[in-house]
Amino acid sequence: MTEHSEPNEPNSPDNTSHVPADSSGTPRPSEPATPSGPAAPFGPARRSGSSGAAESRSAESQVTLRSPAELADALPYLMGYYPDDSIVLVALHGEHGRFGGRVRLGIPADAAQWPDTADQLAECLISGVQDRTERPGAVLVFLCQEPAAGQSGRDVKDRLRPLAQRLRTACGALDVPVLEALCLSNGRYWSYCCPDFRCCPADGTPLALPGTSVLAAAAAYAGVQVRGSLREMEARLAPRTGPRGADQEKALDAAAAALVPRMVRPDGVVAVRRDTLDLAEAMIRRFRLDTPAGSNRARDACDDALITDVEAADLILGLQDRITRDRAAEWMEGPVAAPALRLWRALARRCAGGYLEHAVAPLTLAGWVCWATEDAPSARVTLGRALTIDPDYVFADLLHRAINDGLDPEPLRRCLREQRKEQAADSHGGPALPAQEAPRSDRRPQPTRPGSADRPLGPRGGTRPGGRTTGGRGRRRAGRDGDRSRR
């Protein structure tokens, strides 16, 4: 999946390093890059959807980058994190090379895919930028990858040279030159464009220490944050493994077995929705009263200790229902937003073993809260992981596209506020449900399949949460006949 970022948003791209492929195995960009206007070389992050932000910036808010070293140092601030194992293309505009749209894609492990990947990325960036604003005048290329065991950064640079060359020719074929192509590896950088070993030595040039450059000072002044590396951000969303993962999977099996009889009772669906939201609200109160400190890893460990395997299983299965998930999306602002985000991340980590696909619902809720609280980089990472697990999950796809298109989340927040007011009859004041509500399907219309009416609905559709999927890693409950849609 290709990631896209607003040109005026130094703090706002991302998805995931995992790359969905079409039937030929070629990584497929999801959509063009989506700049919304000209961008200054560097400036304070703007709110999504604000127009004319670049035009209103004064000269004092801009930083001019003049060397490969400064470009390499700028990458984490452009992305909002350090993009591990990634290809990043950045469009430049105007006489002074203002930063424009950006795309990111994980580096394919198979070198045979590099030519097609390079061609698609170049087309994705240049055509997308041209559709929204003026055609870019040049492109910057960044290849970021850490060396494997026994390798050096120079080995990485040499191995990725054919990819860099193909990216340069792909952009050149579209009449947009590559101004600079850099390889970042093992704390050093190399230029694929500069042949002068006096300024670009064969052993590379050390990157500036974090926080020591002029750009770092400008970013701190502008309120731009670097959230660590992409690998670290994705690790916070990865499911449990080992004995703890096995225990959680057993709890999910037991909860799924107990859920089916409840669902077939009269008004069983509505009762399960209420119970799920009541439990979620109780968990949010619990998380709000116990705010952890320390590193991200330490905080996540504390959050994991706040919820039992049984509670996590009931919530995970309950959130597979689209109506329940949409009610839970109302916890997206104010004092409940932060604990809700922590809860959704914790639930995503509990989707162990055969329940990986169940993580899409809490991941999408987490991505929505990130976007609603103006953390677009984290939103892209989270939604990207959700779409990697299930590319057809409609809610995640719509949110991801909205962020890439530079839309403002406020209209959706306003809609959810109105929905909450309409459901205010609930005594506990949280997201409420109507007393009677006909179940609504979470699937797109599809052909009738023999025996489908008698089969319990699983995590891919329906208003009834299902049990674990079967068949091992990579196998899906449904094929490519259109029976994979979710909202």
Annotate the secondary structure layout.
Elements (H helix, E strand, L loop, with lengths): L2 E3 L47 H4 L11 H12 L6 E8 L4 E9 L7 H19 L5 E7 L8 H21 L4 E8 L2 E4 L13 E2 L7 H9 L7 H6 L6 H22 L4 H22 L6 H10 L3 H10 L3 H7 L8 H13 L10 H13 L3 H14 L4 H11 L5 H13 L65
Parallel strand pairs: 4-5
Antiparallel strand pairs: 1-3, 2-3, 2-4, 5-6, 6-7
Helix pairs in contact: 3-4, 7-10, 8-10, 8-11, 8-12, 12-13, 13-14, 13-15, 14-15
What does this structure look like?
The protein is of the alpha+beta class. It is 42% helix and 8% strand. It has a seven-stranded mixed beta sheet, with helices on both faces. Helix 8 runs parallel beside helix 11 and helix 8 crosses helix 12. The radius of gyration is 23 Å and the shape is elongated. The relative contact order is 0.12. The C terminus is likely disordered.
